[in-house]
Amino acid sequence: xxxxxxxxxxxxxxxxxxxxxxxxxxxxxxxxxxxxxxxxxxxxxxxxxxxxxxxxxxxxxxxxxxxxxxxxxxxxxxxxxxxxxxxxxxxxxxxxxxxxxxxxxxxxxxxxxxxxxxxxxxxxxxxxxxxxxxxxxxxxxxxxxxxxxxxxxxxxxxxxxxxxxxxxxxxxxxxxxxxxxxxxxxxxxxxxxxxxxxxxxxxxxxxxxxxxxxxxxxxxxxxxxxxxxxxxxxxxxxxxxxxxxxxxxxxxxxxxxxxxxxxxxxxxxxxxxxxxxxxxxxxxxxxxxxxxxxxxxxxxxxxxxxxxxxxxxxxxxxxxxxxxxxxxxxxxxxxxxxxxxxxxxxxxxxxxxxxxxxxxxxxxxxxxxxxxxxxxxxxxxxxxxxxxxxxxxxxxxxxxxxxxxxxxxxxxxxxxxxxxxxxxxxxxxxxxxxxxxxxxxxxxxxxxxxxxxxxxxxxxxxx
Amino acid sequence: xxxxxxxxxxxxxxxxxxxxxxxxxxxxxxxxxxxxxxxxxxxxxxxxxxxxxxxxxxxxxxxxxxxxxxxxxxxxxxxxxxxxxxxxxxxxxxxxxxxxxxxxxxxxxxxxxxxxxxxxxxxxxxxxxxxxxxxxxxxxxxxxxxxxxxxxxxxxxxxxxxxxxxxxxxxxxxxxxxxxxxxxxxxxxxxxxxxxxxxxxxxxxxxxxxxxxxxxxxxxxxxxxxxxxxxxxxxxxxxxxxxxxxxxxxxxxxxxxxxxxxxxxxxxxxxxxxxxxxxxxxxxxxxxxxxxxxxxxxxxxxxxxxxxxxxxxxxxxxxxxxxxxxxxxxxxxxxxxxxxxxxxxxxxxxxxxxxxxxxxxxxxxxxxxxxxxxxxxxxxxxxxxxxxxxxxxxxxxxxxxxxxxxxxxxxxxxxxxxxxxxxxxxxxxxxxxxxxxxxxxxxxxxxxxxxxxxxxxxxxxxxxxxxxxxxxxxxxxxxxxxxxxxxxxxxxxxxxxxxxxxxxxxxxxxxxxxxxxxxxxxxxxxxxxxxxxx
Lengths: 463, 534
Known about the structure:
The complex is a heterodimer. Chain A has helices at about 10-15, 65-75, 80-85, 85-95, 105-115, 135-140, 150-155, 160-165, 175-185, 195-200, 210-215, 230-255, 270-275, 320-330, 335-355, 370-385, 390-400, 410-420, 445-460; strands at about 100, 100-105, 355, 360. Chain A is an all-alpha fold.
């Protein structure tokens, strides 16, 4: 289906249908169509990507050890095992996906596999995927059937040619981030919703810069040592997450997946509902939970915050206007699915329109000054409210700026912040952050002091 | 007494002016000498009724009732009227009943120094709530959304500023008095022999009927969107205390009685005709008297109240689904379904299989009550299961299906209503009580993890057990220790000083709802019922 709405922007006919989502990014092969997979092992020949692991970290060493790095160190290689764990078994049983150990809801099961395994075609036992390997090469680089031969023979020369074949271009940071958010936020063919969270799956709090830092990389980035690399990753992640969130939102509102629900509760801030009632006749001020209109839950900002970072040409840009409208629609009593879907689609078209540059979606022009402003703004917001995700978002924004700042300026206040936010596993929160349910324990006045210190450090740098 | 008289004038003046009156202690009204006021009022009534003889009944205000019902005049005492009617009803209500303070506790027009007092914290909260809800346009929202319950406010006939002071007043529960208070009606001896239906035609609601009574109580204590008696989630979020569960008899017991209970409406010789008219009890005078004395009246009211609560709960769902403004309002869902700490054992409705992560209706809206008198229970139980399934099918429930189901339910309402009317006019026997206890405890086994269900169940069980003790079927000692523990565990006592707001206990109540020992509660309740049935 091709939707051409000329009034909405010149880039639209280039990116074709906004609902095609990944197509606009040149990543459409990541949708689970019936493409053929060959499995990670097919990449692992010793002459190709299965070489010895040494050397990859060194810039001068030849490539060739991608597969063993993935296999031995990459958590993605474990994700099929995660599906097979007792905990997952419990989650799937609670959801009615499994009944007495048999798959009772195939669509629901495939939804799990869509993120937890390279492919979701089942083998003869109708339980195990053909390649039960976790998230393998083709999950991110695209199913290899269309490009394997040329890639093997080394005949695909340009990036554009690779893209056409379906070998995804993970070089540009924005595209790379979108590959991640396809699962770590969601897409029109994978939906990790409130039902699944309630059954025990951790809620998703993806941050590109944080995850990228922790990732056992099987590649080298030429820019990786430049001081703004982390900050650019952060920005790419924010924008990609926003796009994926909108894509998922639209899909949910159109009920395009059988297990998607509407209204969808995971769109809202967890702690706006999940806090114990205390009967305090003076409840914490509404801003503490970011409450909208008395008893309505505010929507989660974690993934949509990126919409604010698209450059404005003049005054308030159309993206901000649409984003406000979307928030309004989602927080009124009966968030009407059709209007939400339409607004989400409009936003994505506007987003693509403003990111479209030189034939592809590109990261907006980045400057450290701009990002300091963003970070200051987010810290100020955190001072005004005790919403966990808002403060945690501010933290990662500042953290991403770290390398651009003189050494030692941020460390102490960042440490205080980290302690109050109760991150688990160095921000790679594998389980739900406990502090979500309550206000951040601003343990002492240290909390506010540390925010102020950070703001002043960033402001000094601006001067 | 002279001082009282002058105060009376002030109030009448206040009432005459359309402006909201300044703070008036409602008790001040009754400082006057009843007889004098009485005559004035009589004159007033005579004039008023001559002026308009309208078919539809309207409210006449507290002072009209109070003229006779605050203290018996010497003439009435001499004539023996007080052997039939106490004539202190308004005084009892005003001096002891919390309903009389329903408005005083939330009024916002108090002087600043008054608001600083500790006992005025509910008034402060009331001001806060309206602020948080952004209710700005005059007092309209406050009247239409708060005073509908706190006064019995009707926009088509707003109470006078003076009547507002009295909170939930005579006509809020007894019906609009324009017709039945006329001299030729309820002041005549012949009135006693009129059937409840006949009296209803005059506007006097039938409070001899448990189901009618329950309906009136529940229109506020559960809600009725049609009458704008509905606490929305926005209102709760702004600070309104939680609505407690409801048991008719427990609540009636907690009210300072301005009436006499049926067995006490003796000596019987003057009442025989009254009883014949009001209750389907056959036989001669002695037999009727025995039947009434032997009847387990309180338990009967508890049963009927539960069934009405069930009907009205489903009606509330129906109203909520039908109105796009209220559908999806979180207040019809179980508070603890969402308001729980994550990573803790969650509260789950165990009555039907549930998809995790979906709000489920407040248990008290869809509770099943055993109806031991008639056999129509089966369909009701099926309906409840279907409702719960429908609530679970999509987050917040499938509106279309819920509307259909509640519609079906409402269609059968009249039939079940008639069944109940019949049942409540019959005496409740010891066997009925035993059956009721047995069924009640059996159907609630899986739901006692919900604090409010547990509390309501315990109230109902205690009513029945206490009545068995009263009838000497049980010894007090055999049940007292268990009952005492239950009372503490579930905070069953609801007696609060008249002028004290329920806010006082809110914190403890919610804390208890979160942390009460459900297993112990189950054990105690089962033990209590076992002892009662032995």
